[in-house]
Amino acid sequence: RGLRLSFIQIATPTQLRQFKIFDTGGELLNGYGFYEVKSPSGVVARAYIGDRRDPVEFIALAAEQDGGIEDASQQLKSLGLQMAGQYQKRNMDTQKELPRLPTPNELYVGGDV
After folding, report:
1. Which of 28, 52, 76, 78 is the most exposed, having the fewest neighbouring CB atoms within 10 Å of its CB?
2. DSSP 3-state percent helix, strand, coil across the chain (nearest 5)
């Protein structure tokens, strides 16, 4: 059983150039207050304007049903990540337009978070 990349959320210091989305085969899903784009491979990426030291805020991985969640949890822990509850928005000034994530969700963190 494996994990697959499902979603990416990033903060970008400047506006995205919409024509680049279309030039690379992407699909613009939303552009009000944030950009939500579907890549040609089906991965959804959300970008909002914000000043972060690390632009990748989080990624979402989809696990298989029937035990996939437990396997995924063990895989992430084996990489040195630790479970830190559910994701919460960090900055309501820059993230107020972002939709809520599905619940329940599990946030795994590592490093100096």
Report:
1. 78
2. 20, 30, 50
What CA–CA distances, in Å, run from 85 to 21, 27, 60, 91? 33, 32, 14, 18
SS in 3 state form for the chain? CCCEEEEEEEEECCCCCHHHHHHCCCEEEECCCCEEEECCCCCEEEEEECCCCCCEEEEEEECCCCCHHHHHHHHHHHCCCEECCCCCCCCHHHHCCCCCCCCCCCCEECCCC
Tokens representing 88? 């919460």
Residue 101 token pair: 């994530």
